[in-house]
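re: the backbone from monday

yeah here it is again, tokenized this time
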């Protein structure tokens, strides 16, 4: 059966690249990239990829220069989400071997990873396409204002002087508001996830290298 073959293949690759104590460094991330590649995509040929550690953003997980075979992973973001570096590495690898954008081939690449995940004990690939596609939103909205007439509500990352556009009056601050994390709207998630259904999977002959 197909899932049995996937499991045997994954066991073989785990022996080839056993997990080791992880260090968020260029060397540690490079080891992890090739370990995960052999675990999920052993038939793919990939170029020598340079991985760098970025230090200055909490809102972005990574950046890939596909024409340079160069990936930057941002440490501040991954300190907030310490287990996400694995899916981030495979996401960015997809921009090198599958699709430079988030187009149709990138969806096929994701579908292949989901298929392979069924035979891999180590949980790496999110079952939700949006979670694989986007960084987790880390902006915290600490202030909320409401219109006393029409009850329109607005949230901000800091205290502001807000005016209701509909009623043309100052909005009142909700002093009981404790803050929220920004999220991707559910309707958008459903639209994106539906768009990936039915896409074929990549095979080794589709590798760009």
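seq for it, each position gets an aa:
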């Amino acid at each position: 059966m197909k899932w049995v073959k996937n499991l045997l293949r994954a066991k073989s690759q785990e022996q080839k690249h056993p997990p080791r104590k992880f260090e968020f460094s260029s060397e540690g991330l490079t080891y992890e990239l090739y370990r995960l590649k052999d675990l999920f995509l052993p038939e793919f040929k990939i170029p020598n990829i340079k991985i760098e550690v970025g230090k200055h953003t909490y809102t972005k997980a990574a950046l890939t220069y596909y024409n340079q075979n160069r990936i930057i992973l941002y440490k501040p973001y991954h300190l907030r989400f310490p287990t996400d570096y694995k899916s981030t590495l495979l996401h960015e690898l997809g921009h090198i071997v599958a699709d430079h954008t988030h187009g149709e081939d990138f969806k096929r690449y994701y579908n292949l990873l989901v298929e392979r995940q069924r035979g891999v004990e180590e949980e790496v690939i999110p079952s939700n396409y949006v979670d694989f596609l986007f960084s987790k939103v880390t902006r915290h909205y600490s202030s909320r204002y409401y219109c006393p007439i029409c009850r329109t509500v607005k949230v901000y990352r800091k205290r502001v002087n807000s005016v209701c556009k509909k009623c043309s009056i100052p909005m009142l601050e909700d002093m009981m508001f404790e803050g929220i994390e920004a999220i991707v709207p559910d309707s958008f998630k459903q639209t994106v996830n539906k768009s990936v259904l039915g896409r074929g999977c990549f095979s080794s002959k589709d590798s760009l290298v």
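Residues 144 and 155 are 4 Å apart (CA to CA). Residues 2-136 form a domain with the Zincin-like fold (CATH 3.30.2010).
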